[in-house]
Amino acid sequence: MAKLLIVEDDQAIVKSISEFLTGEGFLVEAVGGQRDAIEKLENRQYDLALLDLSLADGNGFSVCSYIKSHGDLPVIFLTATDDEYSVVAGLDMGADDYMTKPVRPRELVSRIRSVLRRAGKNQSVVSFGNLRIDTEKAMVTKNGEDLFLSALEYRLLLIFINNRGRVLTRAQILNDIWDAAGEYVNDNTLTVYIKRLRGKIEDDPAEPTLIQTVRGLGYKAGE
C-alpha cells in the first residue's frame, strides 16, 4: 500500500484529497508547511509526495529540492496556476508530474498510480490476516477465494487497514463512512455494517481477530 505525503496549507483541500485517497487504498499523511514536511521526510519513508507550490511556511520548490537531493522519491506538484515558469521550474527540479488546482480526484489517483508505476513503487496488494486486498482493482480474496464486499463494506475494511493498530471511535468511523458514501449512515447502521463485514472476513465472527472491539472506546484492526 503506497504511503503518500501531502504538503498543503489549505486544510479544506487536505481534507478532501486525503479522504478520497484513503478511500482509494492509499496511506496518507499531511503537513502544512516546508519545515514540517522536511521533518517528516527526515524521519519517515514515503512512496510519493504531493507538493503545493505556495505554502504559508516556505514553498513547494524548496521541499522538492530537498527531496531530490536526498533520494528518488517521486513528486507531483499541485499548483493554483499553470503558468509556464512554475511548470518548467518544477519539472526542471525533478518533479514527476504536476496538476492545476482544483484537482479532479479521479484524475489525481490516475496520475499518482502512473507515477508510482514508473518509479517501481506501485504496491497495490495489501495483506491483512488471510485476506489479500488489491486496492487498484478493488478486489478482496480470503484464502485465495474471491470475497464479495459491498462498496461500504470495502470502504470500512480500508479504514481499518489504513489505521492498523489504532483505536478508532465510532464517531471517527462514521465520519469517514459518511464522506465516502454520500448517504446518511447512523450509529445503528454502522453496527450492522461491522457485523456483516466480520461475517465475511473473520474465521470466527464471534471471536474476531481482524476487527477487534475495544470496550468503551471503539474498534481496532489487528496488526
In short:
The chain is α/β, with parallel strands linked by helices and 223 residues long. It has eight helices and twelve strands.
Largest sheet: 5 strands, parallel
How far do the termini sit from each other? 15 Å
Q: What's the alpha carbon Rg, rounded to whole Å?
A: 19 Å
Mean pLDDT, as a whole number? Answer: 86
Q: Can you tell me the CATH class of the largest domain?
A: Alpha Beta
Strand order of the largest sheet: 2-1-3-4-5
What's the helix-strand series? EHEHEHEHEHEEEEHEHHEE
Q: What number of domains?
A: 2
Looking at the overall shape, the CATH architecture of the largest domain is 3-Layer(aba) Sandwich
Q: Examine the coordinates and then state which fold CATH places here, giving the name of the CATH topology of the largest domain.
A: Rossmann fold
> Spans of 5+ residues with little confidence (pLDDT < 50)?
none
Q: State the fourth-level CATH superfamily of the largest domain.
A: Response regulator
What is the strand tally?
Answer: 12
Number of helices: 8
**What level of helicity do the residues show?**
40-55%
Morphology: elongated
Structure description:
- This protein has 223 residues and is an alpha/beta fold.
- It has two domains: 3-119, 3-Layer(aba) Sandwich (Rossmann fold), CATH 3.40.50; 152-221, Winged helix-like DNA-binding domain superfamily/Winged helix DNA-binding domain (Arc Repressor Mutant, subunit A).
- The chain has helices spanning 11-23, 34-43, 60-69, 84-92, 105-119, 151-162, 170-181, 187-201, and strands at 3-7, 27-31, 48-52, 75-79, 97-100, 125-128, 131-134, 139-142, 145-147, 167-168, 211-214, 218-221.
- The strands form three sheets. The protein has a five-stranded parallel beta sheet, with helices on both faces. The protein has a four-stranded antiparallel beta sheet with strand order 6-7-8-9, with no helix packed on it. It has a three-stranded antiparallel beta sheet with strand order 10-12-11.
- Helix 3 links the parallel strand 3 (48-52) and strand 4.
- The longest helix has 15 residues, at 105-119.
- The model has no long low-confidence stretch (mean pLDDT 86).
